[in-house]
Specification:
By secondary structure, this protein is an alpha/beta fold. The chain is built from 15 helices and 21 strands. Helix 9 packs across helix 10.
């Protein structure tokens, strides 16, 4: 493994309120962000509201055509989006390429699935007062959607909001994370260049102030966020009584039971834990292993983690690059230090240097350890011993988060029990927690958020049912 010796502070003050974003691998300034502030927020909201009203009657086939053309325009800038993801985020190239291709596929999928946005006939004559009346519903857009997006999947997690909101008839204002600013601008440019009318999509660069300003604006109708739970709390308070969709923090449990295929579990949980440097809300964080196979699983898991190739994210065969910033690295290493001070055994599969953190495996940490209670968002997992199935369920549920989890077992009965008793929004059996497809409802319970992404479920988040009743002549 090689590491950079350059100062890798991710954000450094520039001049006149500007912020510089640094490449987490080289430490060089990648680009400068000038926050939009209240002025750009006001201008963007006003323009978005005007465009929403102008295009509200656009037929569905035209909106679908806009998205198909946008996907084609994104295909022309794939190399640019990949390069920016590597340089600005530190995501390994092969993972960045996969993300951008998935983003384009999702935009097209939204166009294909628009037919699912349907209403229903309401049998209002089920009551005597409804005799001679006919009622139906249809789903209508809210208006202006503010989408606050994270750094870890700057293309995919942006289009997961942008494409469903646009195709259902809304206008969208994107407030990307600082590191994802240029990527968001490139995607918005591709949408407009592909034929989307100007005014339906805007990008407001900035940080916390801009996100809160958009959420609080009276002409913003929906606030949607992918980010931490603290950010979700702050935006929900700022938004007040308006639609809020939040895919928030996680601390994903992955259970390995004694009847599981241990080698298969290791094969799937290792990348779920460490690829993308563990910077996914559904990355494996807690591995709960039934006692009879604990030692066998642990030894194989450590050996497999040591086989990952770490280093320069620009290389096509790198599995694990740097975390996004020095600030993130400091937070992650502080959580590792907390586990050490509490007496946990810590296996570090390489050298920690700057933003480069290798796979870290914390074994049987005591109760109260931060890694058990909080979201680490880094290449760190805890491995915990469970006495039996009941104990594994107890440990998995002993957490305020509930985004996505998994269980490895050969028993169908146990799989069904896990489905009933593990408190998460999504559960995989014999697949690790970081696995996600775009056609199932994805979102959390508890402190992991509210609302669902995925098709066609995201369409419902950006529309509301409208009832029409008719008195028949």
């Amino acid at each position: 493994m090689t590491t950079s010796n350059v100062d890798t502070s991710a954000l450094a003050p520039a001049k006149d309120g500007e912020l510089s974003v640094r490449n987490p691998w080289t430490g060089e300034v990648a680009f400068i962000v000038r926050p939009g502030g209240a002025g750009q927020i006001e201008n963007s909201v006003r323009a978005a509201k005007t465009s929403f009203r102008q295009f509200i009657k656009t037929p569905a086939h035209q909106r679908a055509s806009w998205l198909n053309d946008a996907a084609a325009a994104m295909e022309k800038v794939v190399a640019q989006l990949v390069d920016m993801t590597v340089a600005h985020i530190g995501k390994p190239r092969k993972a960045a390429e996969m993300e951008v291709k998935r983003s384009i596929a999702f935009v097209r999928a939204c166009a294909t699935h628009l037919h699912s946005l349907a209403g229903e006939v309401v049998p209002i004559d089920m009551v005597p007062a409804g005799m001679g009346l006919f009622g139906f519903t249809r789903r209508v857009p809210y208006g202006v959607v503010a989408a606050v997006t994270p750094f870890n999947a700057p293309s995919n997690l942006l289009v997961q909001k942008l494409a469903p909101a646009l195709i259902t008839g809304n206008a969208v204002i994107i407030k990307p994370c600082l590191e994802g600013t240029e990527i968001a601008q490139a995607i918005a440019k591709a949408f407009v260049g592909g034929g989307l009318p100007e005014g339906l999509v805007h990008v407001v660069p900035g940080d916390r102030e801009e996100a809160l300003g958009l959420a609080a604006h009276p002409d913003v109708d929906v606030v949607t966020l992918t980010g931490g739970t603290a950010a979700g709390d702050a935006l929900a308070r700022a938004a007040g009584a308006k639609r809020f969709v939040g895919e928030l923090g996680g601390n994903s449990p992955n259970i390995v039971l004694a009847d599981a295929n241990i080698d298969d579990a290791v094969k799937r949980i290792v990348p779920s834990s460490f690829e993308a440097s563990g910077q996914q809300c559904i990355s494996t964080q807690r591995i709960i292993v039934e006692a009879p196979v604990f030692d066998a699983f642990l030894s194989r898991f450590i050996a497999a983690a040591k086989q990952l190739k770490m280093g320069d994210p620009g290389l096509s065969d790198t599995d694990l690059g740097p975390v996004v910033s020095a600030r993130a690295a400091e937070r992650i290493t502080a959580m590792i230090g907390d586990a050490r001070r509490r007496g946990a055994r810590v296996e570090v599969c390489g050298e920690i240097a700057g933003c480069m953190i290798p796979p870290v495996i914390v074994i049987e940490p005591p109760a109260g350890t931060r890694l058990i209670r909080e979201e680490v968002f880094g290449p760190v997992v805890v491995v915990m011993r469970a006495d039996n199935v009941d104990d594994a369920i107890r440990i998995a549920n002993d957490c305020e988060f509930g985004l996505q989890g998994s269980c490895f077992t050969s028993s169908l009965a146990t799989a069904m029990r896990m489905s009933e008793e593990i408190r998460v929004g999504s559960l995989w059996i014999n697949e690790a927690s970081r696995f996600r497809l775009d056609n199932y409802p994805f979102g959390g319970v508890g402190r992991s958020g509210v609302g669902r992404e995925g098709l066609p479920y995201a369409f419902e988040e950006y529309t509301q049912p409208k009832f029409t009743g008719i008195r028949l002549p």
